[in-house]
Specification:
The protein has about 375 residues and is α/β, with parallel strands linked by helices. About 35% of the residues lie in helices and about 15% in strands. The chain has helices at about 20-30, 50-60, 90-110, 125-135, 160-170, 180-185, 200-205, 230-240, 270-275, 290, 300-305, 330-340, 340-360, 360-370; strands spanning about 5-10, 35, 65-70, 75-80, 120, 140-145, 170-175, 190-195, 220, 245-250, 260-265, 280-285, 310.
Length: about 375
Protein backbone atom coordinates (compact mmCIF):
# COMPACT_ATOMS: atom_id res chain seq x y z
CA UNK A 1 0.00 0.00 0.00
CA UNK A 2 1.30 3.47 -0.93
CA UNK A 3 2.36 5.76 1.88
CA UNK A 4 1.40 9.43 2.03
CA UNK A 5 3.75 12.39 2.08
CA UNK A 6 2.25 15.83 2.70
CA UNK A 7 4.61 18.68 1.82
CA UNK A 8 3.73 21.95 3.55
CA UNK A 9 5.68 24.21 1.20
CA UNK A 10 6.57 27.87 1.54
CA UNK A 11 6.34 28.50 -2.20
CA UNK A 12 3.67 28.03 -4.85
CA UNK A 13 3.89 25.05 -7.18
CA UNK A 14 4.36 27.23 -10.25
CA UNK A 15 7.14 29.31 -8.68
CA UNK A 16 10.74 28.94 -9.86
CA UNK A 17 11.33 25.19 -9.75
CA UNK A 18 13.50 24.21 -6.81
CA UNK A 19 13.98 21.73 -3.98
CA UNK A 20 10.31 21.59 -2.98
CA UNK A 21 8.99 20.60 -6.43
CA UNK A 22 11.90 18.30 -7.28
CA UNK A 23 11.44 16.46 -3.99
CA UNK A 24 7.69 16.09 -4.55
CA UNK A 25 8.12 14.71 -8.08
CA UNK A 26 10.88 12.32 -7.10
CA UNK A 27 8.92 10.98 -4.13
CA UNK A 28 6.05 10.19 -6.50
CA UNK A 29 8.54 8.26 -8.63
CA UNK A 30 9.48 6.32 -5.48
CA UNK A 31 5.87 5.21 -5.09
CA UNK A 32 4.57 7.70 -2.52
CA UNK A 33 1.23 9.49 -2.71
CA UNK A 34 2.40 13.11 -2.52
CA UNK A 35 0.20 16.06 -1.61
CA UNK A 36 1.90 19.43 -2.14
CA UNK A 37 0.29 22.22 -0.10
CA UNK A 38 1.26 25.59 -1.51
CA UNK A 39 2.49 28.41 0.70
CA UNK A 40 0.06 29.75 3.26
CA UNK A 41 0.09 33.45 4.16
CA UNK A 42 3.02 34.17 6.49
CA UNK A 43 2.93 37.98 6.78
CA UNK A 44 0.49 40.84 6.39
CA UNK A 45 -0.10 41.71 2.73
CA UNK A 46 1.16 44.87 1.06
CA UNK A 47 -0.11 46.67 -2.03
CA UNK A 48 2.33 44.65 -4.12
CA UNK A 49 0.64 41.45 -2.95
CA UNK A 50 -2.85 42.40 -4.17
CA UNK A 51 -2.50 40.84 -7.67
CA UNK A 52 -1.21 37.60 -6.13
CA UNK A 53 -4.06 37.53 -3.60
CA UNK A 54 -6.68 37.96 -6.32
CA UNK A 55 -4.96 35.29 -8.42
CA UNK A 56 -5.11 32.88 -5.49
CA UNK A 57 -8.75 33.70 -4.78
CA UNK A 58 -9.59 33.01 -8.41
CA UNK A 59 -7.70 29.73 -8.25
CA UNK A 60 -9.41 28.63 -5.06
CA UNK A 61 -12.93 29.61 -6.08
CA UNK A 62 -12.97 28.67 -9.76
CA UNK A 63 -10.75 25.60 -9.95
CA UNK A 64 -10.70 22.29 -8.09
CA UNK A 65 -8.74 22.51 -4.87
CA UNK A 66 -6.82 19.33 -5.61
CA UNK A 67 -5.50 18.42 -9.01
CA UNK A 68 -2.73 16.50 -10.71
CA UNK A 69 -0.39 19.16 -12.01
CA UNK A 70 1.46 18.74 -15.29
CA UNK A 71 4.73 20.49 -16.06
CA UNK A 72 6.11 19.07 -19.28
CA UNK A 73 4.54 15.74 -18.40
CA UNK A 74 2.13 14.69 -15.66
CA UNK A 75 3.97 14.78 -12.37
CA UNK A 76 1.47 12.83 -10.30
CA UNK A 77 1.78 15.36 -7.47
CA UNK A 78 -1.52 16.48 -5.95
CA UNK A 79 -1.41 20.24 -5.42
CA UNK A 80 -3.57 21.99 -2.82
CA UNK A 81 -4.01 25.76 -2.85
CA UNK A 82 -4.74 26.98 0.69
CA UNK A 83 -6.71 30.03 1.67
CA UNK A 84 -5.93 31.16 5.22
CA UNK A 85 -5.37 34.43 7.01
CA UNK A 86 -1.79 35.59 7.65
CA UNK A 87 -0.49 33.99 10.84
CA UNK A 88 0.56 37.36 12.23
CA UNK A 89 -2.01 38.37 14.85
CA UNK A 90 -3.55 36.25 17.61
CA UNK A 91 -7.03 36.93 16.22
CA UNK A 92 -6.00 35.71 12.76
CA UNK A 93 -4.45 32.58 14.26
CA UNK A 94 -7.63 31.87 16.22
CA UNK A 95 -9.83 32.28 13.13
CA UNK A 96 -7.48 30.06 11.14
CA UNK A 97 -7.59 27.36 13.80
CA UNK A 98 -11.39 27.39 14.09
CA UNK A 99 -12.23 27.83 10.43
CA UNK A 100 -9.69 27.91 7.60
CA UNK A 101 -7.03 25.44 8.78
CA UNK A 102 -9.59 22.82 9.77
CA UNK A 103 -11.17 23.10 6.32
CA UNK A 104 -7.76 22.93 4.65
CA UNK A 105 -6.80 19.84 6.65
CA UNK A 106 -10.03 18.13 5.57
CA UNK A 107 -9.21 18.84 1.91
CA UNK A 108 -5.68 17.47 2.34
CA UNK A 109 -7.00 14.34 4.05
CA UNK A 110 -9.37 13.73 1.13
CA UNK A 111 -6.30 13.24 -1.07
CA UNK A 112 -4.58 10.73 1.21
CA UNK A 113 -4.49 7.00 0.63
CA UNK A 114 -6.71 5.36 3.21
CA UNK A 115 -4.86 3.35 5.87
CA UNK A 116 -1.52 4.52 4.45
CA UNK A 117 1.04 5.94 6.87
CA UNK A 118 1.48 9.70 6.53
CA UNK A 119 4.65 11.78 6.80
CA UNK A 120 4.51 15.58 6.87
CA UNK A 121 7.48 17.54 5.53
CA UNK A 122 7.18 21.20 6.50
CA UNK A 123 9.12 24.28 5.40
CA UNK A 124 7.77 27.40 7.15
CA UNK A 125 7.76 27.89 10.94
CA UNK A 126 4.32 29.44 11.37
CA UNK A 127 1.38 28.87 13.66
CA UNK A 128 -0.54 27.64 10.59
CA UNK A 129 2.04 24.88 10.09
CA UNK A 130 1.65 23.77 13.70
CA UNK A 131 -2.14 23.82 13.47
CA UNK A 132 -2.12 21.75 10.28
CA UNK A 133 0.17 19.14 11.82
CA UNK A 134 -2.21 18.91 14.80
CA UNK A 135 -5.18 18.26 12.52
CA UNK A 136 -3.36 15.82 10.21
CA UNK A 137 -1.85 13.72 13.04
CA UNK A 138 0.95 12.28 10.86
CA UNK A 139 3.02 9.27 11.86
CA UNK A 140 6.24 11.16 11.14
CA UNK A 141 7.15 14.85 10.94
CA UNK A 142 10.23 16.15 9.11
CA UNK A 143 11.45 19.75 8.89
CA UNK A 144 13.28 20.50 5.66
CA UNK A 145 15.01 23.74 6.67
CA UNK A 146 16.39 25.76 3.76
CA UNK A 147 16.32 29.29 5.23
CA UNK A 148 17.59 31.22 8.22
CA UNK A 149 14.18 32.52 9.30
CA UNK A 150 15.73 34.50 12.14
CA UNK A 151 17.06 36.95 9.52
CA UNK A 152 13.77 37.41 7.65
CA UNK A 153 12.04 40.79 7.73
CA UNK A 154 8.29 41.27 8.22
CA UNK A 155 7.86 37.90 9.94
CA UNK A 156 5.97 37.59 13.26
CA UNK A 157 8.14 38.33 16.29
CA UNK A 158 7.65 34.85 17.71
CA UNK A 159 8.86 33.08 14.54
CA UNK A 160 12.04 31.76 16.18
CA UNK A 161 10.04 30.50 19.18
CA UNK A 162 7.58 28.73 16.86
CA UNK A 163 10.44 27.24 14.84
CA UNK A 164 12.15 25.86 17.95
CA UNK A 165 8.85 24.40 19.18
CA UNK A 166 8.15 22.72 15.83
CA UNK A 167 11.71 21.39 15.64
CA UNK A 168 11.27 19.64 18.99
CA UNK A 169 8.11 17.90 17.78
CA UNK A 170 9.75 16.84 14.49
CA UNK A 171 11.30 13.39 14.20
CA UNK A 172 14.19 14.82 12.17
CA UNK A 173 15.46 18.06 10.68
CA UNK A 174 16.98 18.16 7.20
CA UNK A 175 19.12 21.18 6.34
CA UNK A 176 20.71 22.15 3.04
CA UNK A 177 23.83 23.92 4.33
CA UNK A 178 26.48 23.92 7.06
CA UNK A 179 25.22 27.10 8.78
CA UNK A 180 21.76 25.67 9.38
CA UNK A 181 23.26 22.34 10.48
CA UNK A 182 25.31 24.12 13.14
CA UNK A 183 22.37 26.31 14.16
CA UNK A 184 19.73 23.60 14.64
CA UNK A 185 21.87 20.64 15.65
CA UNK A 186 21.39 21.27 19.38
CA UNK A 187 17.57 21.29 19.32
CA UNK A 188 16.84 18.64 16.71
CA UNK A 189 16.04 15.05 17.69
CA UNK A 190 18.04 14.08 14.61
CA UNK A 191 19.66 16.33 12.01
CA UNK A 192 20.80 15.43 8.49
CA UNK A 193 22.64 17.55 5.94
CA UNK A 194 21.02 17.14 2.52
CA UNK A 195 22.69 19.64 0.22
CA UNK A 196 21.15 20.97 -3.03
CA UNK A 197 20.94 18.46 -5.84
CA UNK A 198 21.16 18.36 -9.62
CA UNK A 199 19.89 16.29 -12.50
CA UNK A 200 23.50 15.72 -13.48
CA UNK A 201 23.11 14.55 -17.08
CA UNK A 202 20.79 17.45 -17.91
CA UNK A 203 23.44 20.00 -17.00
CA UNK A 204 26.62 18.10 -17.83
CA UNK A 205 25.93 16.53 -21.20
CA UNK A 206 25.23 19.77 -23.15
CA UNK A 207 28.60 21.16 -22.01
CA UNK A 208 30.79 18.20 -22.92
CA UNK A 209 31.75 19.87 -26.20
CA UNK A 210 32.27 23.32 -24.63
CA UNK A 211 35.85 24.49 -24.14
CA UNK A 212 36.91 26.86 -21.41
CA UNK A 213 37.87 30.18 -23.00
CA UNK A 214 41.29 31.81 -22.69
CA UNK A 215 39.59 35.03 -21.60
CA UNK A 216 36.28 35.70 -19.86
CA UNK A 217 34.13 38.23 -21.67
CA UNK A 218 30.51 37.15 -21.13
CA UNK A 219 29.05 36.42 -17.67
CA UNK A 220 25.56 35.11 -16.88
CA UNK A 221 23.40 34.82 -13.77
CA UNK A 222 20.20 32.78 -13.86
CA UNK A 223 17.40 32.89 -11.31
CA UNK A 224 15.54 35.60 -9.43
CA UNK A 225 17.50 38.74 -8.52
CA UNK A 226 16.64 40.68 -5.36
CA UNK A 227 18.54 43.25 -3.33
CA UNK A 228 18.28 41.30 -0.06
CA UNK A 229 20.01 38.21 -1.41
CA UNK A 230 22.07 39.31 -4.40
CA UNK A 231 25.05 41.66 -4.64
CA UNK A 232 23.74 43.83 -7.48
CA UNK A 233 26.57 46.32 -6.91
CA UNK A 234 29.06 43.64 -7.97
CA UNK A 235 27.09 43.11 -11.17
CA UNK A 236 27.19 46.84 -11.86
CA UNK A 237 30.90 47.00 -11.05
CA UNK A 238 31.73 44.23 -13.51
CA UNK A 239 29.50 45.79 -16.17
CA UNK A 240 31.39 49.06 -15.80
CA UNK A 241 34.65 47.16 -16.21
CA UNK A 242 33.56 46.17 -19.68
CA UNK A 243 32.27 42.62 -19.18
CA UNK A 244 29.06 41.69 -20.96
CA UNK A 245 26.61 40.65 -18.25
CA UNK A 246 23.37 38.76 -18.76
CA UNK A 247 20.56 37.85 -16.38
CA UNK A 248 18.05 35.10 -17.16
CA UNK A 249 15.18 35.38 -14.71
CA UNK A 250 12.98 37.74 -12.76
CA UNK A 251 14.00 41.05 -11.16
CA UNK A 252 12.21 41.22 -7.80
CA UNK A 253 12.97 44.68 -6.46
CA UNK A 254 16.05 45.94 -8.29
CA UNK A 255 17.05 48.09 -11.22
CA UNK A 256 20.21 46.73 -12.80
CA UNK A 257 23.00 48.61 -14.57
CA UNK A 258 21.67 49.69 -18.00
CA UNK A 259 24.27 47.65 -19.88
CA UNK A 260 23.15 44.38 -18.26
CA UNK A 261 20.90 42.38 -20.56
CA UNK A 262 17.86 40.83 -18.85
CA UNK A 263 15.69 38.09 -20.36
CA UNK A 264 12.76 36.15 -18.84
CA UNK A 265 13.09 32.78 -17.14
CA UNK A 266 13.10 29.83 -19.49
CA UNK A 267 12.03 26.20 -18.90
CA UNK A 268 14.59 24.17 -17.02
CA UNK A 269 14.94 21.63 -19.81
CA UNK A 270 16.00 24.40 -22.21
CA UNK A 271 18.25 26.26 -19.78
CA UNK A 272 21.56 24.37 -20.27
CA UNK A 273 21.56 24.97 -24.03
CA UNK A 274 21.03 28.67 -23.41
CA UNK A 275 23.83 28.83 -20.81
CA UNK A 276 26.31 27.37 -23.30
CA UNK A 277 26.44 30.79 -24.96
CA UNK A 278 28.34 32.36 -22.06
CA UNK A 279 31.93 32.09 -20.84
CA UNK A 280 31.18 32.06 -17.14
CA UNK A 281 28.48 31.76 -14.45
CA UNK A 282 28.27 34.23 -11.57
CA UNK A 283 26.91 33.65 -8.05
CA UNK A 284 26.74 37.20 -6.63
CA UNK A 285 25.46 36.88 -3.06
CA UNK A 286 25.46 39.52 -0.34
CA UNK A 287 27.25 38.71 2.89
CA UNK A 288 24.69 39.06 5.70
CA UNK A 289 22.71 37.03 8.26
CA UNK A 290 20.14 36.06 5.65
CA UNK A 291 22.67 34.65 3.18
CA UNK A 292 24.41 32.85 6.06
CA UNK A 293 21.48 30.45 5.73
CA UNK A 294 21.55 30.33 1.93
CA UNK A 295 23.31 27.88 -0.33
CA UNK A 296 22.41 28.47 -4.00
CA UNK A 297 19.96 25.83 -5.20
CA UNK A 298 21.76 26.05 -8.53
CA UNK A 299 25.22 25.43 -7.05
CA UNK A 300 25.73 21.87 -8.29
CA UNK A 301 24.02 22.65 -11.58
CA UNK A 302 26.81 25.18 -12.08
CA UNK A 303 29.40 22.60 -11.00
CA UNK A 304 28.02 20.04 -13.46
CA UNK A 305 28.44 22.46 -16.41
CA UNK A 306 32.18 22.63 -15.91
CA UNK A 307 32.56 26.26 -16.99
CA UNK A 308 34.19 28.89 -14.71
CA UNK A 309 32.21 30.28 -11.77
CA UNK A 310 32.61 33.74 -10.25
CA UNK A 311 31.33 33.85 -6.67
CA UNK A 312 31.23 35.98 -3.57
CA UNK A 313 32.15 33.94 -0.50
CA UNK A 314 28.98 33.77 1.55
CA UNK A 315 29.08 31.45 4.58
CA UNK A 316 28.24 28.23 2.77
CA UNK A 317 30.42 28.85 -0.29
CA UNK A 318 33.66 29.29 1.65
CA UNK A 319 34.44 25.57 1.63
CA UNK A 320 34.49 25.68 -2.18
CA UNK A 321 36.63 28.83 -2.34
CA UNK A 322 39.45 27.22 -4.34
CA UNK A 323 36.99 26.18 -7.06
CA UNK A 324 35.71 29.71 -7.72
CA UNK A 325 37.02 32.91 -9.22
CA UNK A 326 36.60 35.13 -6.18
CA UNK A 327 38.21 37.78 -3.99
CA UNK A 328 37.80 39.86 -0.84
CA UNK A 329 37.03 43.03 -2.81
CA UNK A 330 35.45 43.89 -6.15
CA UNK A 331 38.84 44.91 -7.48
CA UNK A 332 40.36 41.60 -6.44
CA UNK A 333 37.53 39.69 -8.10
CA UNK A 334 38.10 41.68 -11.28
CA UNK A 335 41.83 41.04 -11.12
CA UNK A 336 41.27 37.29 -10.74
CA UNK A 337 38.87 37.29 -13.69
CA UNK A 338 41.37 39.11 -15.87
CA UNK A 339 44.31 36.91 -15.02
CA UNK A 340 42.75 33.51 -14.43
CA UNK A 341 44.65 30.52 -15.82
CA UNK A 342 42.84 28.34 -18.35
CA UNK A 343 44.98 25.32 -17.44
CA UNK A 344 44.23 25.67 -13.72
CA UNK A 345 40.57 26.27 -14.52
CA UNK A 346 40.42 22.97 -16.43
CA UNK A 347 41.71 21.18 -13.31
CA UNK A 348 39.10 22.95 -11.15
CA UNK A 349 36.40 22.08 -13.65
CA UNK A 350 37.11 18.37 -13.28
CA UNK A 351 36.87 18.63 -9.49
CA UNK A 352 33.57 20.53 -9.68
CA UNK A 353 32.10 17.96 -12.05
CA UNK A 354 33.12 15.09 -9.74
CA UNK A 355 31.42 16.87 -6.82
CA UNK A 356 28.26 17.40 -8.87
CA UNK A 357 28.13 13.68 -9.70
CA UNK A 358 27.69 12.95 -6.00
CA UNK A 359 24.96 15.56 -5.49
CA UNK A 360 22.30 13.99 -7.69
CA UNK A 361 18.58 14.04 -6.97
CA UNK A 362 18.68 10.27 -6.77
CA UNK A 363 21.08 10.46 -3.82
CA UNK A 364 19.26 13.34 -2.13
CA UNK A 365 15.84 11.73 -2.39
CA UNK A 366 17.34 8.49 -1.08
CA UNK A 367 18.26 10.35 2.11
CA UNK A 368 14.71 11.68 2.43
CA UNK A 369 13.27 8.20 1.88
CA UNK A 370 15.51 6.84 4.64
CA UNK A 371 14.10 9.45 7.00
CA UNK A 372 10.51 8.80 5.94
CA UNK A 373 11.03 5.10 6.52
CA UNK A 374 12.95 5.80 9.74
CA UNK A 375 16.06 3.83 8.82
CA UNK A 376 18.34 5.91 11.02
CA UNK A 377 20.34 8.14 8.66
CA UNK A 378 23.27 9.81 10.38
Amino acid sequence: MAKNVVILANIEWGFLKQRHQFLAENLVSCGYNVVFVESAAKRNPTLEDIPRIFARLKKVLKKPEMQDVAIGETSGVKVVTPFVLPSTYLLFRYINKKLFVKSLATKIQSQLVSNGATTVIWYAPTSTTGQLINYLKPGRVLYDCVSNFEAFTNMPKDTVYIEDKLIKRSDAVCVDCDFLYDKHGKNANKIVLIEPAVNFEDFNKPFQDVEIKEKIETIVYYGQVDSFKNDVKLLAFLAEKGYKLYVIGKLADVVLHPSISVSPSIPLNKLPEQLKKYDCIILPYNINKFTDGVVPAKLFECFAMGIPIIATLSYNLKKYEKLFITGDTYDKINENIMFFSKDKEIEKSKIRIDIAKVHTWQNAVGQFVDLIEDEGVE
